[in-house]
Design goal:
Layout (H helix, E strand, L loop, with lengths): L23 H11 L1 H24 L4 E5 H7 L8 E4 L5 E5 L2 E5 L4 E6 L6
Antiparallel strand pairs: 1-5, 2-3, 3-4, 4-5
Organism: Taishania pollutisoli
Protein name: DUF2116 family Zn-ribbon domain-containing protein
Length: 120
């Protein structure tokens, strides 16, 4: 009979033939270490998106407001990251960070909006 060992701690495995870990803790530790680099990247992007959403929400307390791009930039808004884009039938392009969105207007002005249920 072949001796099987836990992929994380090396202890001898008893039980199912396809068993790879001796415990949930070893399985979690192994997988967390395996995916650590990807998690750092995803965590960094999610932090940027959450910050963008928070900035839009603070600058738009009533659901519709116009601000200039300098104000957004001074607050730390990152225009390169958003969760989705919505284009109207007239061709206006709204960028959203979750439910908080903006539309670029003329003269570095931005109209801030909150996504409505009918916008997919």
């Amino acid at each position: 009979m072949e001796k099987r060992e836990c992929l994380e701690c090396g202890s001898v495995l008893r039980g199912r033939k396809d068993q790879k870990f001796c415990s949930d803790q070893c399985r979690n530790t192994y997988n967390n270490r395996l995916h650590e680099d990807a998690n750092k990247y995803v965590r960094r992007i999610n932090n940027i998106l959450r910050k963008n959403r928070r900035i839009l929400e603070q600058l738009n307390p009533n659901g519709k407001n116009t601000v200039d791009g300098i104000t957004l930039a001074e607050e730390g808004f990152n225009f390169h990251y958003f969760t989705n884009v919505y284009e109207t039938k007239k061709g206006a392009i709204y960028y959203f960070c979750y439910e908080q969105g903006y539309l670029k207007l003329e003269n570095d002005q931005y109209m801030l909006v909150v996504k409505q249920d009918y916008v997919r």
